[in-house]
Amino acid sequence: MSDKAYAVTPEWAGRAWIDDAKYQALYERSISDPEGFWGETGRRLDWIRPYTKVKDTTFGPGEVSIKWFEDGTLNVAANCIDRHLATKGDQVAIIWEGDDPSKDETITYSQLHERVCKFANVLKAHGVKKGDRVTIYLPMIPEAAYAMLACARIGAVHSIVFAGFSPDSLAGRIDDADSHFVITADEGLRGGKTVPLKKNTDEALERCTKGGGKVLVVRRTGNPVPFKDGRDLWLHDELAKVDADCPPVEVGAEDPLFILYTSGSTGKPKGVLHTTGGYLLYASITHQYVFDYHDGDIYWCTADVGWVTGHSYIVYGPLANGGTTLMFEGVPTYPSPSRFWDVVDKWSVNVFYTAPTAIRSLMGAGDDHVTKSSRASLRLLGSVGEPINPEAWEWYHRVVGEDRCPIVDTWWQTETGGILITPLPGAIAQKPGSATLPFFGVRPQLVDDKGTPLEGAAQGNLVLLDSWPGQARTLYGDHDRFVQTYFSTYPGTYFTGDGCRRDEDGYYWITGRVDDVINVSGHRMGTAEVESALVTHPKVSEAAVVGYPHDLKGQGIYCYVTLNTGEEPSDDLKKELVKHVRHEIGPIASPDIVQFAPGLPKTRSGKIMRRILRKIAEDEFSALGDTSTLADPSVVDDLISNRQNRK
Ligand code: WT7
Predict the structure, then answer these.
(1) What is the ipTM of this complex?
(2) What is the CATH number of domain 521-642?
(3) Which residues in the chain show pLDDT less than 50?
(4) 0.90 cut: is pTM over it?
C-alpha cells in the first residue's frame, strides 16, 4: 500500500458477509455481467410479479433512459414490514431516542405494521391516491417513518422537506411537486429548542401558487398552534376514525417512490426522482454489505430523514433487511457533547454512521466526553457527506472506536440513491481520507476537463460509466434538465460534479465539488441560491457567493455583496443580510462571511470570474491567475485588501 493503511483484520475477514476473495469475484461479475449479477441479487426483495427484464439503461449521447426490473411489481412497505412479520413480529424495528434523553420509544415490526396501515388509511380517507405527491415536513419522530411507509404502501410519492428549511423553501418544493397534501407537526424539538413547523407550513401555503391542499398535523410538543378548519387535520383525530386493514398496493418497479429536492450549481433546487424496485434493492444490499449488517445488530445512522441518507440508511435499507434502526430526534451536543456515546451505551449500538462535521465538532469538545462512555458495543463506524480529513478520521478510529472498529467512508449523492464508493469492512483495507473502492456494479472513471479518460494514478473529474439500480431516473417534471445537468458535460457518462484523485492502489479520494455547489456540514448548497436570496434584499445590488475551507463545517459560505448606490456598508447591515438569507432559505444557508465589495471581478462580457473570488476567499492571493482579461482589474486589489477574517 502506498499510504498508511488499516488492514482488514482476520476477525473481520472471517465474520463479514464479503471478504476480499468475494469482493474481487463479485465485483468482476457485476461489471462483466450486470444482467446476471443484478438479476440474481434482485431476488432479495419480495416481488408481487417477478421481473423478466433486468437492465435497460442508456446514458446517451442523445436520449437518457434508465430502467431496472421494468416489468416487475412490488410494494416497498410490504418489503420493509409485512415480509418480516412471520419471523420478526416482536423484534424492534425502530428505536426512537428523543431530544430529551428521558424520552424514548421502541416500535416492533408488528406495531410498525399496524401504525403504517392506519396512517395509510388516513391518507386514503382524504383522497390521496397512487402517484399523488405528498409533502412531508416533519422532525425526527417515528411518524416521519410511518408517513414515508404509508405513502409507499398506497403508491403515493413522498417529497420530504428538511424541517430546517424556511417557509419559502417549503413553498417552492410544494409547488414544484404539485403536491396537495402536507404532513407536518405542531412543532419540532432540537437541542431543547422548538421549531415552529406548523406556523412555517401555514406561511408556506399562503405563498404556494400551485400546490397546497390538506395539512395533516402530528402533535409533538402540544403547544398551541393556529388551526384552519376544513384544511388542517390532527393525526390523532384521524387515526381514531380508521382501521388497521390496508393491503399494500401493487406498484411497478419503475413507478416513483419519492422526490427529494437538492441544490445544483444553477437555478432552483432539483426534484431528484427515485423509483421503486431498483432503489430498494440498492439501499438494501448496500446497507447489508457496507455496514456488514447481521440479524440482531443495533444500527444507528445519525442523519435526518430530510436528506437522502435518512431515506436510504435510516428507513428503507435497514427495514428492507429486517434490521433494528435507531432514529434520533436531537443534536450531537445536547444536553452535552457526550450525547452520541450515551445513546450508544444506552441502546448497545453496534454500527454507528455519522458525518465528518459532527466528528470534528465532537473532537473539538475534548476526548473526555467520549472516554467516559463504554462504547463496548460498537463494532463498525461510518462517515458520509463530505471528505473526511485524515486527522478527524484518526481521532474517530482511535478515540471513538478504540482502534477496534473499521471505518467505512461512504461516498455517494442524493442522485445515486445509495453508497457507490466505500470500503467493505471484511474486504478492503482503509486509508484515512479515502472512500477507497467501488461497490458492486459501479464503474468510476476519471476524466480531464476535455473528457479524456485518465488511466492509473491521476486526478480529474469523477464520472460513472454505467447505471446501477439505485440511480435517480429523472428530475421531477424536467427530464431535459436531468440530461443537461448530469449527462451533457462528458457525453455518454454520468457526471458526479465531484473532483477525485486515484492513487497507485486504485483507491479513490474525493476532493470535493468542482461545480458551484458548496458542501456545508455535509449539506449541499447552491451558490446561486444564496445569491438569489441576497439580491432580494432591498439594499443589495449584486452578490457572488463561493465556498472556503472551514474548520468545522468543511466549507463555509463566503458572500461578496455590492450595495445599491447610496447604501452605506455597516456591521449591522451584515447581520441583517445573514438574517435575511436564513429567513429566505433556512439556517443551513447562513452566510459565514459577508464582504462588501464596491465591484466584482467581471470579464468584459460581464461574467463574474468566480475563480478569482474563490481564491481570495481561500486566502490564496498568489494563485489568482491571469486577471488582465477583467473589465476592471483594480477591483481585485480592493477585494484583497478588504478580505474578511475567517471565523
Ligand atoms: C455530495 C453529495 C450522500 C449523502 C450525503 C450527501 C459529497 C458525500 C462523501 C464522502 C467525500 C462526499 C460529494 C457529493 N460527499 N459523501 N464520503 N467523501 N465527499 O448527499 O447532499 O447529495 O451531496 O456530497 O461532494 O457529490 P448530497
Answers:
(1) 0.99
(2) 3.30.300.30
(3) none
(4) yes
